[in-house]
Design goal:
The protein is built from eleven helices and 16 strands. With 302 residues, it is an alpha/beta fold. It folds into two domains: 213 residues, Rossmann fold (3-Layer(aba) Sandwich); 78 residues, UreE, C-terminal domain (Alpha-Beta Plaits, 2-Layer Sandwich), CATH 3.30.70.790. The strands form four sheets. It has a six-stranded mixed β-sheet with strand order 8-9-10-5-11-12, sandwiched between helices. Helix 6 links the parallel strand 9 and strand 10. The longest helix is centred in the middle third of the chain and has 16 residues.
Length: 302
């Protein structure tokens, strides 16, 4: 049995002469939130459309829950729900009517619509016309529509696009709840790197159709050497003391000194050493590279 909800093996896809996806080998573990990261135009939406069989993939390159997609199209698609680009909502119907309509299409009990409204937090807006919904509410309704068939795997293409901070937090919390409490697997694409860092358990970084990095969020963060910023009254003296004590000093910009973080105990010892040698330490703070800088690092090496 495959441990992957999605696996692509050297996936290639062309529009005419243009290669949009190149030798892409995604591995999305079951029960993960897999952040599919890349700038706009990197090939994320095309990949998601291939996974949904909206674009035909070559044989033996795409597997969903261990089964080849083309040969098991209907069975595989029954296990998936998706929100790609804009949600397909009837503006003249209420939120609830949209969901009831989808229930009828899928041959599901109409009461499932109430369960979905509750899950995505739209109970109070159930009888409001969907055309009057805010962008965040429309996205949540789109996710409810994607979830109504109780899929095991959810593909969300830029679900927080154009949302206000509250809407972003709502979608983020909903994704975490779906995975932790409802046993779903989610592949979520985004060009907002900080957004993925807050929700994802695993990450794949794509640029120009090629996968540059794939691993757990921890793997990604360990690529960025954590730094410690030290503010003190006498930076020149502090720098000498730190260097003598064996710290790796990265920079002294006149306001603070940055050194490589080697662990809590090491920081405690360095702090004591500075104080004992007459330096007043104002602050000691650990900092990570944000994913934007990490992304630049990874892409510049390729």
């Amino acid at each position: 049995m495959s441990n992957f909800a999605i696996e692509t093996v050297g996936l290639n896809y062309h529009f005419g002469n243009q290669t949009v996806v190149k030798d892409l080998s995604l591995q999305v573990p079951k029960g993960s939130i897999y952040g599919f990261l890349g700038p706009n135009g990197a090939g994320k939406t095309t990949t998601i459309k291939i996974l949904l069989n909206l674009l035909q993939s070559p044989t033996d390159q795409v597997f969903v829950f261990g089964k080849e997609l083309n040969a098991n199209r209907i069975a595989s698609l029954k296990r998936m729900g998706a929100l790609v680009e804009q949600p397909a909502i009837y503006a003249h119907l209420t939120g609830k009517e949209n969901l009831v309509n989808r229930c009828m299409l899928l041959g599901i009990n109409k009461n499932k619509s109430n369960e979905m409204l509750s899950l995505v937090g739209l109970v109070e807006a159930a009888n409001k016309k969907a055309g009057k919904y805010s962008l965040g509410m429309k996205q949540r309704l789109g996710i409810a529509l994607a979830l109504i068939g109780d899929p095991e795997l959810l593909l969300l293409d830029e679900p927080t696009n154009g949302l206000d901070p509250n809407g972003i937090i709502e979608i983020r919390n909903l994704m975490i709840e779906l995975v932790t409490k409802h046993g779903k697997t989610i592949l979520v694409s985004s060009h907002l790197l900080a957004e993925i860092e807050r929700t994802a358990t695993h990450v794949g970084i794509i640029n120009k159709g090629q996968l540059l990095f794939q691993g757990t969020i921890g793997d990604l963060q360990s690529l960025s050497k954590p730094l410690v910023k030290i503010e003190a009254d006498d930076l020149a003296l502090a720098q000498n003391i730190l260097a003598t004590a064996g710290a790796e000093v990265l920079q002294n910009d006149g306001k603070s000194i940055s050194i490589v973080y080697k662990g809590k105990e090491d920081m405690g010892i360095l702090n004591s050493t500075l104080v004992q040698n007459g330096v007043t330490v104002y602050s000691l703070a650990q900092e990570r590279k944000d994913l934007e800088n990490l992304f630049l690092d990874i892409t510049s090496k390729n």
